[in-house]
Design goal:
Strand order of the largest sheet: 1-2-3-6-5-4
Largest sheet: 6 strands, antiparallel, barrel
Number of helices: 2
Order of helices and strands: EEEEHEEH
Radius of gyration: 14 Å
Number of strands: 6
Distance between the termini: 28 Å
Structural class: alpha+beta
Shape: globular
CATH topology: Thrombin, subunit H
Number of domains: 1
Mean pLDDT: 81
CATH architecture: Beta Barrel
Low-confidence stretches: none
Helix content: 10-25%
């Protein structure tokens, strides 16, 4: 498949859970992230071309060391919408690419800091 991504993708060393706001269940675990979107691994198939209301919990970000344990500026969970764009099935595991949609300026800024932090941890 031809690469269409214009922004560098960063792989996470620890998979970060992303939650479906409607059900409270884990949609999947973020395996890599860019400023435009992310890829999740999941045990269940994720419907393509669908919008999802999602959440990343601040405690999970701290646990994965993407936020400092005493970073008081980052107390809130990150709520956002993402659209599923592609999927790939491996035995017992689905990979799905999602694109961020309608990010607030604050969430966009927070997610960009996370991407920078991932990049810094890898180099």
């Amino acid at each position: 498949m031809r690469e269409r991504r214009n922004i560098k993708r960063w792989s996470l060393l620890l998979f970060l859970p992303v939650y479906n706001q409607d059900t409270g269940e884990v949609l999947g675990h973020i395996a890599d992230i860019t400023a435009d979107g992310f890829m999740v691994f999941s045990k269940k198939s994720i419907m393509l071309n669908s919008l999802f209301s999602l959440k990343i919990q601040a405690d999970d970000l701290r646990e994965s060391l993407l936020l400092s344990p005493n970073d008081e500026d980052e107390e809130a969970d990150i709520y956002f919408t993402a659209e599923s764009r592609w999927t790939d099935v491996n035995p017992g595991l689905y990979r799905t690419g999602l694109m961020f949609k309608d990010l607030t300026e604050e969430n966009n800024s927070t997610l960009r800091r996370i991407v920078r932090k991932v990049a810094q941890n890898l180099y």
